[in-house]
Design goal:
With about 80 residues, the chain is mainly alpha-helical. It is about 70% helix and about 0% strand. The protein contains 4 helices and no strands. Helix 2 crosses helix 3. The protein is elongated, with a radius of gyration of 15 Å. The mean pLDDT is about 90.
Length: about 80
Amino acid sequence: MAEHITCREVVELVTDYLERALPADETSQFEQHIDFCDACIVYVEQMRTTVAAVGRVTVEDVPPETRERLLKAFREWKR
């Protein structure tokens, strides 16, 4: 990984960061970026809030038709 990371990389790495799954060097670069990027600070805090709110939802809580619609939306988003 480069010496500095971009906002796009913050978005890609945020889940691993919040789960403390990033290697130490990437964690350091991530934290250096969010120390100086107001937009990414807001984004990371929004993700923390989202995880805290929906982290309690289990697969059984989501109706099958809703799960399929969500999966379809994510698949199409990647295209």
